[in-house]
Amino acid sequence: MKRVGILCVGNDSPGINAAIRSAVVRGLNLNIEVVGIKDGFEGLLRDDLDVLLRPNVSGILHQGGTILGTSLFVPAEDDEINKVKEKVEQYSLTSLLIIGGRLGAKAAINLMKFDVPSVLVPATIDNDLSFTDFSIGFFTAVEHVTNALDILHSTAEAHHRVMIVETMGRPGGWIATVGGLAGGADFIITNAEKINFEELIDNIRNRYEGKKRFSLVVIESGVEISEKIKNECGCTNNENAAEIIGKFIEKRLKPEFDIEWRYTNLGYLQRGGTPTAMDRIIATQMASHVIEMIKAGKSYHAVGIKGFSLTEVPYSETMLNIKPVDFYLKELTKLFF
């Protein structure tokens, strides 16, 4: 019987539990034993693992987070990878099934160099992995951003304010762009392109001159603001990009419209919670498929989605390339500004 060690690497994403459930159920159907490893590679090195059966994964499809826990630790040094290899051999694991984003991909590539077999299921709300169109957790994160914008829309309109909403997802721009588009944002700022400050001001001015005396501005975390803009609005390096944008808007437009602005950082509200239907479906598909790959003796591959089809992608350093938000989506947002 083949044995698969399943573990999570990096940040949690809604839908990971659906993937764990799928791997266990499919494994049992194919006579493959699935061993759950707690807290990523840290758990493997401290021997914190156990066989997973149907009762262990019953009722977890709708749960956020991960029942196995996760860790940001990635084996990188030779001694760390050798210790992982020893544990894989000690527990007679045919392969590791790694669930994760960029850190998971890094771990998989590092292990491949030492002949430690693994397969990778992409799970990151950032959706920035180059080898797949969608990763587990992205759709749920976008839903949270959309819902937040729906809520903030009403209070922005009531008080005639500019609401600035900060999202995760850097540097790819996917969460801010797709969430902002779905939530009716009036302007979206990401790391994927240079900020057009004059366009931002013109957009808000046109709304206040008309009947829409409020605005929703979505900004991705980590956006860099030039010293020129900081100096214009009297900002310091201790203020984040969203606060600087708010002060810039106030500096330019308060004399005309007595504009007020407020800032909301959605933070970890985007990462947790019940996974959406789409995240459950792609998690189930991908995890089931990698079990079939292991059954066929295939390793050193990631599973991905292109369009609506599953793909198998051989490990390479290109897996670590960042996938910027789709150009068409960026252009589409401008139609509604």
TrEMBL record:
Q: What is this protein called?
A: 6-phosphofructokinase
Domain Phosphofructokinase span(s) in chain numbering = 3-294
Pathway(s) served: Carbohydrate degradation; glycolysis; D-glyceraldehyde 3-phosphate and glycerone phosphate from D-glucose: step 3/4
* Cofactor section: Mg(2+)
Source species of the chain? Thermosipho ferrireducens
A family per Pfam:
PFK
Q: Which Gene3D superfamilies match?
A: 3.40.50.450, Phosphofructokinase domain
Provide the leader sequence positions.
Answer: none
Keyword Transport among UniProt keywords: no
Q: Which family does it belong to?
A: Belongs to the phosphofructokinase type A (PFKA) family.
Arranged from A to Z, the UniProt key words for this protein are: Cytoplasm, Glycolysis, Kinase, Magnesium, Metal-binding, Transferase
Tell me the lineage of the source organism. Bacteria, Thermotogati, Thermotogota, Thermotogae, Thermotogales
Q: Does the keyword Transferase apply?
A: yes
